[in-house]
Structures are given as C-alpha cells and as structure tokens.
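Data card: per-record layout.
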Amino acid sequence: MKSDRGRGGAVVHPYRGYGSIREAFLMGRVFRQAGLGRIIPRYGALRDIADVARRVVRRGLPDVKVHVTLGGNDITVTTDRDGYFNAKIPLHTPLPLDTSWHRADLHVVTHDGAEPIHSFTDVYIPPEDTDLLVISDIDDTVMYTGVANKLRMLYRLFVKPAHQRTAFPGVAAFYQALYVGESEAARRPILYVSRGPWSIYEMLEEFFQINDIPVGPILFLREWGITWRKPWPRRAEEHKYALITRMLDLFEDLPCVLIGDSGQHDPEVYTRIVKEHPGRVKAVYIRRIDSQADRERAIDGLRQEIAHTDCELQLATDSVAMAKHARNRGFISESGLQAVCRDSCDDSD
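The structure for this 349-residue chain is written out next.
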C-alpha cells in the first residue's frame, strides 16, 4: 500500500474477486497502517524496508461494516477480529456478458469518526463457453521461493522486491497459452494459490505484471496464525485442498488442470482431489524442483494410483515438458507450444 505516500491511517484493501453467473466472492481487509513520517524518502532501499515492516505490523480493524456494490447487486459484511471481510454476493441482477472483468465498489465507515473510505477492485466471471479451469500453485511452481529452506523462504516472501524475484523459464508463455487455449480465443480462468500470507498480496501482483504472467484472482493466500507459542505458520495442505474443492463446486462440471511442484505436498493433495472428483481433473503438472530418488518414487506411486482415470500426472523438469503434454491433450495451440520453447530458451541464456 504505497499509494498513501507514507501518511498511514485506515486503509481498505480488496483483493481481486471471482465468481460464476449466479454468485460472486470478494475478500479484503480493513487495517490501520503505520505512517512513515518525513524522514523516510519516497523511493529507495530505506523506503522498501519500511514498506516491508508496515506490511508485517498492520493492525486489522474488527467489526467494521463494508458495503460492496457489483453491478446492480450489493451486500454489507462485517470485518472479523483481524480486519478481514469475505463477501458472497448473489447476482440477482445479471452482469454484462460481453466482458469477464467487472468492477466492484466498496464503501467503509470506521468507528473513529474518520472520513469514509472508498475503494474498488475487479471481479472475474468466466464466459459461459469456458472449456477449462486452471488452478496453479505459486511458490516453486511459478516463482522460485525455496520453501525447503525456511529462513531463506521468509526472506524471499517478505523482503525481496518483486523485480528481483525469479520466475521459472517459460512460465509466462505457458500460462498465456493455457489462458487462450487451442483456439487462441478462449478466456479461461486461471486461479493462483500461495502458501504465503495475505500481506504479500501487493508484491505478488507486481511480480505477475513484471513477468507478463496472465493475471487471475490470487485467491488462495492465507493467514499464517503465527503466535509466540507457534512461531511457524500452520500447515497448508488442508487449506489448499478445501479451496480447490470449493472452486470445483463453484464451477460445477468445468474440467480442470492442476499445476504444482514436487517440493511440498502438491502431488498428494492433487491426487486426493482427482480421486474424489472423478472426471473433473484432466491433467496434473508437477514441476520437479529437486532430484531426490525417494520423492520421485513416491510421486510415481501417486501416478499409478490414478492411472485408471482420465487424468495424467506429469512430473516435469521444465515448462517445455508441461507444454508438450498440454499440446498433445489439446489444451494449448501449436503456436503456444512454440512460444513456451522460445521463452524457455531466452530465459536460460
């Protein structure tokens, strides 16, 4: 939240929303942000460090009313004890069908008598003829994070600026190819999940823009639940499983592709989802981020568990391997595959 120019105060930060033709979902947070004062310059390393500190120490404002308007639909929700709000908006008045992104306006009145806060964000509603849903992990799948080393991971998550973070070669072209599909005219929903906390949302948005990765609702961040007694974040497996299951329910019969990495529990979570939702998941792409023999054997065992289904689990060394399989399955076009090959070669030079 650099737009406050260091003044601080109450802020409402809505995240990109998503939905179907029947209902939409929008999350966000109302919090009090510390001011920087005049001694902190507006640009430079000192300002970057100060902004990181402000993200970490934000204090949520509880029990604040947030009024959300989306087209001719509106709802009022209340923030929880950490300042977060979660709006489920029934779309009694249909939204225009000629666009996928719709503007939601927010109006917030805090308890301290300050001026009302106004903000807006975008809500993604996929076209009725959408043929595929793509759900992707971010950490060590799109962006190198190094979750195996906890201290380095925390540094990369909280401190490292977006322009210094590394996207895996070919990722942008692969996700662009998935977005437009084999016809190159599709507008598929791409939903992203991260093990990181909501406080890095702005950094992730900037990272996606810098690296030309198709924008989607970055839905699946979470509160870490860190306390002095529990200084590490809660485990993410059930969080990810529950949210992906919710997306499959929301988009009903829409086929799905899941993308993750071999470093954590993505293969196990995705295999469970394939079993519990027969016929829905058409492919699972797992980026191999190490070459541990035991881990590869475990993933191969998972592949065998779903071998009788229509879903193929691919342990891929790079984006090109994923794109070749996606091309063979008709998920992307030939020109999309060639773009991934070019992008991967350029990034490896």
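Known properties of this structure: The CA atoms of residues 28 and 55 lie 14 Å apart. The two ends are 35 Å apart (CA to CA).

See the next section for split statistics.
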